[in-house]
């Protein structure tokens, strides 16, 4: 039980700043990397670089996040990168791109992200009250991994359907415009 309490204490570092607390001034790549690494813990020891310059360049090239202006990333890009860094642990980058390119603006999307991250963290912290001394960390880890796996699968399927629906709508709109 003491081991679980130690692990739950690690969740205290798994918080990201509110949108209005993100830097107001645009940041260069190295500043962005430092800022995000400060606010997102690594997934595992070998994963100490949750984001690298080349990853960010690829996200820009693949239109996952918007292009920097004069090699500087604005508040919206930083919020997007924080979400990408966290979500890439459970979703393919194409799904994350779909989420970030939804009609919502990034500030609203980040607010939803923040609210849900805080709720999940709180639910994890409340978990210790529901556990008995007989529960094993391995069993709990398996339950959490299954939960994450099923939810990630469902999210992927939802985003795939949304993408298919968007493609069909564009195709129908194109056909309609061609007929007119």
- Helix/strand structural class: mainly alpha
Order of helices and strands: HEHHEHHHH
Largest sheet: 2 strands, antiparallel
Shape: globular
Overall mean pLDDT stands at 83
DSSP summary, beta strand count: 2
Quaternary form: single chain
The main sheet orders its strands as 1-2
Helix content: 55-70%
Low-confidence parts, pLDDT < 50 over ≥5 residues?
none
Estimate what percentage of residues fall within beta strands. under 5%
Cα gyration radius (Å): 19 Å
InterPro entries: DUF1836
Protein name: DUF1836 domain-containing protein
Detailed description of the structure:
The protein is mainly α and 180 residues long. Helices cover 66% and strands 2% of the residues. It contains seven helices and two strands. It has helices spanning 2-10, 29-39, 53-61, 75-87, 93-100, 106-130, 137-179; strands at residues 27-28, 72-73. The protein has a two-stranded antiparallel ribbon with strand order 1-2. Helix 4 (75-87) runs parallel beside helix 6 (106-130). The longest helix is centred in the C-terminal third of the chain and has 43 residues, at 137-179. It comes from Paracholeplasma manati. Pfam families: DUF1836 (PF08876).
């Amino acid at each position: 039980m003491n081991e679980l309490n130690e692990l739950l204490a690690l969740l205290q570092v798994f918080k990201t700043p509110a949108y209005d607390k993100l830097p107001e001034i645009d940041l260069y790549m190295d500043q962005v990397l430092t800022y995000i690494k400060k606010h997102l813990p690594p997934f595992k020891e070998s994963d100490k670089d949750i984001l690298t310059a080349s990853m960010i360049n690829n996200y820009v090239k693949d239109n996952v996040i918007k292009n920097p202006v004069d090699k500087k990333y604005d508040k919206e890009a930083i919020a997007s990168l924080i979400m990408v860094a966290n979500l890439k642990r459970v979703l393919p980058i194409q799904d994350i791109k779909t989420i970030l390119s939804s009609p919502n603006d990034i500030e609203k999307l980040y607010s939803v992200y923040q609210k849900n991250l805080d709720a999940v963290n709180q639910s994890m912290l409340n978990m210790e009250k529901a556990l008995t001394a007989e529960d094993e960390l391995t069993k709990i880890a398996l339950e959490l991994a299954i939960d994450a796996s099923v939810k990630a699968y469902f999210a992927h399927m939802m985003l795939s359907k949304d993408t298919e629906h968007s493609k069909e709508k564009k195709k129908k709109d194109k056909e309609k415009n061609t007929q007119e």
